[in-house]
């Protein structure tokens, strides 16, 4: 997606799919456009291809991502639908996000006003565009916490339309907060004589409610408080941190409420420009391995090995019409359980939460939401970390020539993180928590003289 500026078997299967996509792209393009030296066609190249195709219908093409439907739990009533924002994103690159004041919809107050009464919350993004334009990345934040990260569909002459419906029930405490907050949407777009597409978008919240019932078991329902780990308004561009190399760090200083008994850090990320296809990079481009690390006060607490999302303009946009790639319209987020580390966080002081990317090249957009569950009595909790082990990342790269002009690069990585701890609560007694990650990776890249110029 253009921002302008696991296991070994899974990696092998993905590499095979990638090769298939490339072969499909080659068969449909003239030689000058089918070069294997790049994995993305420009918007103008796609427009040139479409000029030679039969005239498209007058109606816009509707794009969609295959996903599960969102169904409210039995006994729910609703929906109550509220339009949060309508905007046309023309030349918005490096400009401030579009903002709107947010207060809980009146129907939520009529249902009782409490977050626990929300049985299902669905955030719907619906947009359209016509003309020549790249696919663009966009984000939606409420009170600084990110709710949705997505990539636009890539437009065509007759226009395009698409929608995203995301289950945002886990953000119920934000949606029901009585204090007014700010909704922010950033979609960096450029409109000029060549790129004419303007994205017209509507953002709607659909709420379903349950009748008063027994509260969920401790720590299993939506969090009581969500604290953003992101940049603050006012600013230009999105609220995400921009990571341009492996030395950049996105950092926020946060104080955790002393009544917390569970904590989960939800990480949002997307990769662009030189790292859009990071899993194909050779040694000269920092290799094909990337890892997002999360540290608290300098101690590593978790790692994310990202799923390789292909955006709607990736490789060949004709591959993603009308069904887009997995995660392209609704990029995944990743949870890291940090409850075992509450022993160092319940002192009422601010602590540094750091996000970085191993081997990163320009650019990664990263932020996070800290989900916190609080003791219902409001009384302080106590906690301790009983074990912690996080050896350094184990990674190797081997090189082997294979005949004239051909080279093989083999990359492997292994990561292990584990922690255990307990939390003593006034309401629930002693709670124990454990967090374990065991991640392995291997990658093989073949580089021949004919394609070496790509890197």
UniProtKB/TrEMBL annotation:
Give start and end of each Peptide N-acetyl-beta-D-glucosaminyl asparaginase amidase A N-terminal domain: 78-390
Coiled-coil ranges per the record?
none
InterPro entries on file: PNGase_A, PNGaseA_N
Which N-terminal stretch is annotated as signal sequence? 1-34
| UniProt keyword annotations, A-Z | Signal
Top-rank lineage group of the source organism: Eukaryota
In terms of PANTHER family, this protein maps to:
PEPTIDE-N4-(N-ACETYL-BETA-GLUCOSAMINYL)ASPARAGINE AMIDASE A PROTEIN
Specify the protein name: Peptide N-acetyl-beta-D-glucosaminyl asparaginase amidase A N-terminal domain-containing protein
């Amino acid at each position: 997606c253009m921002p302008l500026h696991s296991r070994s078997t899974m990696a092998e299967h993905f590499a095979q799919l990638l090769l298939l996509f490339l072969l499909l792209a080659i068969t449909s393009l003239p030689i000058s456009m089918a070069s294997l030296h790049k994995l993305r066609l420009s918007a103008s190249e796609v427009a040139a291809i479409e000029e030679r195709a039969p005239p498209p219908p007058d109606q816009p093409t509707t794009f969609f991502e295959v996903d599960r439907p969102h169904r409210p739990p039995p006994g729910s009533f609703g929906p109550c639908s509220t339009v949060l924002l309508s905007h046309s994103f023309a030349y918005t690159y490096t400009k401030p996000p579009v903002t709107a004041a947010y207060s809980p919809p009146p129907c939520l107050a009529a249902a009782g006003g409490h977050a626990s009464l929300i049985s299902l919350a669905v955030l719907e993004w619906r947009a359209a565009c016509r003309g020549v334009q790249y696919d663009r990345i966009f984000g939606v934040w409420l009170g600084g916490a990110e709710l949705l990260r997505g990539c636009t569909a890539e437009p065509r002459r007759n226009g395009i339309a698409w929608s995203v419906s995301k289950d945002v029930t886990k953000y119920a405490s934000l949606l029901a907060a009585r204090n007014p907050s700010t909704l922010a949407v950033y979609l960096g777009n450029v409109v000029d004589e060549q790129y004419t597409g303007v994205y017209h978008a509507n953002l709607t919240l659909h709420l379903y409610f349950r009748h008063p019932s027994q509260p969920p078991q401790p720590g299993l329902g939506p969090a009581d408080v969500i604290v953003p780990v992101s940049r603050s308004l006012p600013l230009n561009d999105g609220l995400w941190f921009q990571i341009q190399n492996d030395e950049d760090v996105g950092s926020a200083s946060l104080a955790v409420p002393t009544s917390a008994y569970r904590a989960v850090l939800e990480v949002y990320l997307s990769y662009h420009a030189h790292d859009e296809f990071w899993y194909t990079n050779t040694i000269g481009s920092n290799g094909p391995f990337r890892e997002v690390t999360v540290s608290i006060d300098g101690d590593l607490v978790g790692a994310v090995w990202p799923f390789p999302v292909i955006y709607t303009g990736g490789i060949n946009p004709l591959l993603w019409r009308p069904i887009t790639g997995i995660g392209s319209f609704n990029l995944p987020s990743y949870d890291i359980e940090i409850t075992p580390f509450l022993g160092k966080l319940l002192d009422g002081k601010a602590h540094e939460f750091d996000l970085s990317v191993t081997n990163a090249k320009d650019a990664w957009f990263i932020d996070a939401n800290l989900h916190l569950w609080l003791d219902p009595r409001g009384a302080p909790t106590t906690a301790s970390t009983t074990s912690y082990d996080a050896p350094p990342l184990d990674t190797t790269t081997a090189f082997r020539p294979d005949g004239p002009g051909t080279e093989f690069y083999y990359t492997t990585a292994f990561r292990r993180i584990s922690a255990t701890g307990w939390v003593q609560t006034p309401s629930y007694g002693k709670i124990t928590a454990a967090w374990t990650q065991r991640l392995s990776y291997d990658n093989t890249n073949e580089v021949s003289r004919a394609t070496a110029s790509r890197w």
